[in-house]
Each structure stands twice: as C-alpha cells, then as structure tokens.
Amino acid sequence: LPKELETYADNLTDAESVLLQELNRETYASVLMPRMLSGHIQGRVLSMLSKMIKPDTILEIGTFTGYSALCLAEGLSENGKLITIDINDELEKMVRHYFSKSPFNSKLEKYRDWDLGGDWSLVMVPVWVLRSGMRVSLVLVSVYCGSCISTSITFKFGFANSYNYDNNIVD
User: Three-state SS across 24-90?
Assistant: First the structure.
C-alpha cells in the first residue's frame, strides 16, 4: 500500500491488542519472511468479518505465527472453534505460546495436518493455496450454505504481479 493510504487506514482502524502487538514484534524480530504476517489492518478486517458472521467453526489453512487465527477467533460464537493447520514445525512453539496467552485459547486448535472434512462456517485460505492444487477442494465440499470463504494474497511481496500460478513459484 502507498504510505499515505496505510497511514489513513491505520488512523481509522481499532488499535491492535497488546497480545497482537507482541506477536507482531516477535514475528518481525525472529521469523524468516515476517511480512507474511497478516498485520494490523488485515487483522482488523478478519476480526470484523468473523464478528459479522459469528461462526461456529473456522478452518484456517496456513497458520504462520498465528496472528490471523487470533483475529478470526475474536468473532467465534460462544461455543465456536477455530482449527488452523500448517506444516511449518519451526513456528509451533511460538504459535502455541501466543494461543495460550489469548482469551480464546480453549477455542483454538493447531495441527500440522488434519482431515479437512467438517461443516465450516468460515474458511480462511490464501489464494496461493487455492491455486496450488492442494487438498482445498475437500474443504469446499464441506462448506455449508450460508458459509463464507475468505481468501488473502500478500501484496507486500508483489505476489499479485509476480506469482506464477501454473508452476507455484515467484518469478
């Protein structure tokens, strides 16, 4: 985003919680490719979307450091549950640490691999996953009428312009 637009959006967006600020800071200080973090503005949009839907079940494909999962969890119904899956074992300890500090900890489950079947109220999946031919088609069969599928793509990397979807590589 142009700096002026980002500043404008920041000024009109609710502040990050202390927990999200800490996670943001640690991600940028210690994780490879920290710009993959959803971040403040996208996180607030995810939170708003989840609060509008009040989902019973959320599936997030791609946890990274858990920022977006924590944002999505803000809107879960009283008995709701968020399942997030990621194959990166290196970030497992960090994700679990921040989940444990969250008021939504009991509603969050993190897996390396998981059976994607289920009745999902909200599915969060990055565009690159949809285009990669991964098992996401199994999820789409499990989404019931009235559900929401949210996608994200990271413009911070320029992926929107340089990602080669046919070969799953960044040009």
Answer: HHHHHHHCCCHHHCCHHHHHHHHHHHHHHHCCCEEEEECCCCCHHHHHHHCCCCCCCEEEEECCCHH
